[in-house]
UniProtKB/TrEMBL annotation:
<protein>
    <submittedName>
        <fullName>ATP-binding cassette domain-containing protein</fullName>
    </submittedName>
</protein>
<comment type="similarity">
    <text>Belongs to the ABC transporter superfamily.</text>
</comment>
<keyword id="KW-0547">Nucleotide-binding</keyword>
<dbReference type="InterPro" id="IPR003439">
    <property type="entry name" value="ABC_transporter-like_ATP-bd"/>
</dbReference>
<dbReference type="GO" id="GO:0005524">
    <property type="term" value="F:ATP binding"/>
</dbReference>
<dbReference type="InterPro" id="IPR027417">
    <property type="entry name" value="P-loop_NTPase"/>
</dbReference>
<keyword id="KW-0067">ATP-binding</keyword>
<keyword id="KW-0813">Transport</keyword>
<feature type="domain" description="ABC transporter">
    <location>
        <begin position="22"/>
        <end position="143"/>
    </location>
</feature>
<dbReference type="InterPro" id="IPR050166">
    <property type="entry name" value="ABC_transporter_ATP-bind"/>
</dbReference>
<dbReference type="Pfam" id="PF00005">
    <property type="entry name" value="ABC_tran"/>
</dbReference>
Amino acid sequence: MSFVKFENVSLAYSNSEQLAIKDINFSINENEFVALVGPSGCGKSTFMKLTSGLLSPSEGYVFVNKREVVGPQKCVGMAFQASNLLPWRTTLQNVMLPMEIVEPYRSTRRKKGHEYEEQARALLKRVGLEGYEDKFPWELSGGISSVPRFVAR
Ligand SMILES: Nc1ncnc2c1ncn2[C@@H]1O[C@H](COP(=O)(O)OP(=O)(O)O)[C@@H](O)[C@H]1O
Ligand SMILES: [Mg+2]
């Protein structure tokens, strides 16, 4: 089976009677690099939300790595179109946010918090943000502030 597979997938957002995407059949193999291109509103983000398990299909089935997607997927990263950095948290604290929410990090935070922080600092360094750990999102340029959002995934 393909790494990502959509079988007859349709989705209607709960506040809408119209289908945002209709009867999609699509597959992506492991190591395949795919770009979805299309006009605004054609369903690209909806596709990503279904693949990452943030949304469940109204009809049909979504599979990732041979398993049906029934909830948020840890193996799928998603860089959102709109910035979702929390303005009251520093760069480092924004990068660390998933560690406070997602298991197994959340429950092991007391023991391993230091290790997780080291990892976050290493990631920031890797994208050229060493020295910006204690800055707030509004102190970074728009271009820079989009980077930790990507890293945070
Ligand atoms: N939260 C939402 N509630 C209702 N309709 C939505 C929502 N998000 C997207 N849509 C609708 O779903 C369709 C696909 O949107 P989207 O996946 O965001 O498109 P794209 O990412 O390709 O620009 C559009 O018609 C859009 O208006
Ligand atoms: Mg979009």
